[in-house]
Amino acid sequence: IHALPQGCCLRVTRGAAPELVTYYDAASDVSEAEHTRLRGSSVEQVLDELDALLIRSVGENLRGTGQCAVALSGGVDSTVLCALARRQASVQAVHVSVPQGKGYDERRTAERIAKLNGVPLSVVTMSGELYRNTLVQATAANEMPLWHLQNLGYFLASQRAAELGIDTLLCCGTSVSGCVRA
Predict the structure, then answer these.
(1) Mean pLDDT, residues 92-98 taken together
(2) How far apart are CA 101 and CA 128, in angstroms?
(3) Bridge-based pairing state of the strands 19-22 and 8-11
(4) Phi, psi of 123 (to 5 degrees)
(5) Which tens digit of pLDDT belongs to each residue from 73-90?
(6) What DSSP designation does 40 have?
(7) What is the DSSP letter of 14?
(8) Among 50, 81, 104, 159, which residue carries the largest CB count within 10 Å?
(9) How many Å apart are CA 59 and CA 126, to the nearest integer?
C-alpha cells in the first residue's frame, strides 16, 4: 500500500519498478502572469476573488436548471457548495451514508449542515448488499468506479436525485462526476 501525492497515480508494469505518474497539477493550469498578479495581491483580495469565482461558478451550474440538489457528504467542499447553492436557489441535498464505516460515516454532519442551510436532505444508506448489487451498473455508468473511491456513492446519489425528480446534481471532489444531469 502506497500513499500517493494529490494528482498522482502509481503505474505498475510487469517486470518494471512502480512509477509515480502525475496526471494533474493545478499549478500548471495557471499562467506565469496570473501567478505574478496573485503574488502582488493581498490575502483579502485573493479571498474576495476566490469567493466571487465560487459564487459565479455555482450560479452558472444552477442557471437554466429545473430542480437542483447538492451531493452533500458532510465534508468541507460539499458544505461550501451547499451553502453557496442555497444562497442562489432552492435546492435539496442527497447524502450517501455508510453506517458500517463508523470512522467514515458523515451522516450526522450532513444532517446538521442541511438543517442549518434549510435544505431538505435525502439519505441513501449503503450496505454491503447494495454495494455488490450496484457495482456493475456503476462501472458501466462511470467506466472506472474504483479510480475514485466515491464514484459508487456519486452514482447512488445520482440515482436518488433522479428518483426525486432532480434535474441537476452538483458534486464536489471528482472530475468524473462533476455536475451530473440525473
Answers:
(1) 90
(2) 11
(3) antiparallel
(4) -115, 135
(5) 888 889 999 999 999 988
(6) T
(7) T
(8) 81
(9) 31
